[in-house]
Amino acid sequence: MPGPFEIDRSPPSAELLEVAKQELRETPEVRAAAIEELRKLLSASDLSFPDDEEFLLIYLRPTKFYPESALKLMRNVAEFNKTYKDLLHNLMPADVKPVFVDHGLINIFTNRDQKGRRLMVVHMGEKWNTKEVTEDQIFRALYTIQKLAVLEPATQINGAVVIYDFKGMGMGHVKAMSTSGAKRLLTFIQEACPLRMKAVHFVNEPMIFNMVWSLFKPFVKEKLNKRMFFHGEKMAKLHEHISKECLPANYGGSLPALDYGAKEWYPVAEQYNDFITKWNTCGFK
């Protein structure tokens, strides 16, 4: 078993493969045929992506093993990387180390939820010093985390859940956000991220959150909109989606209050520099 601050790259269990079969159409036969077809489509395209089985599965699982859909997702990723080249070109963990180590704005829980999904919290309020960390830097950190999450077969199959915590948000935080930043984040989540985003939960939103939401709302598509939930300070509403047994005391859960953060997770990112370098080659020929 991997330790608490490790990427779980263990092969899917029989139980997990059954989930993949039911939700993603994954069987040994479907998987093999889809990998072969995606390789053919990729080689005949203007895209440059690694074509080993592990890498292709990253794109086939969220698209339910339809090779054409996987290729479209790859194209979306290539387009996104091209559009935001200034921010993302050859981005390595060391480039976002201060966001992880010095500020702790993002935290991945060491446990999964009751459905086996990865849980992540993003602090957009009192923990965010807008004078030291920009909106762009937060996005670069989130993009880096995605590169690590896709390495986990369990996360590829079960997906991920994000909690945005706005506790202590003030006008300074609102002013630090932009329409372009909102569009970039939502384009990434909805079109250019090969992860199954199962839910986005907003907690501790103050009154001025309406100003923030007005930036994001125009870019939210129907599918994601159905997976967005607003709870305010009512953690009981959050517990309707994520079991109390899977949440720390910070969010009304029965687990101990968080005593770890991105600082503890950061060394994991550097362990996978080779994979991230490989990921950074993805794009157009």
Short description:
The protein has 285 residues and is of the alpha/beta class. It has helices at residues 14-24, 28-43, 53-60, 67-83, 85-88, 97-103, 135-149, 153-158, 171-175, 179-191, 209-216, 222-225, 235-239, 262-271, 273-279, and strands at 47-48, 106-108, 118-123, 160-165, 197-203, 228-232, 283-284.
CATH architecture of the largest domain: 3-Layer(aba) Sandwich
- Helix coverage percent: 40-55%
What fraction of the residues are assigned to beta strands by DSSP? 5-15%
Secondary-structure element order, N to C: HHEHHHHEEHHEHHEHHEHHHE
Main sheet characteristics: 5 strands, mixed
Number of DSSP helical runs: 15
| Number of DSSP strand runs | 7
Please compute the radius of gyration using only Cα atoms.
19 Å
CATH class of the largest domain equals Alpha Beta
| First-last Cα distance | 39 Å
Q: Count the domains.
A: 2
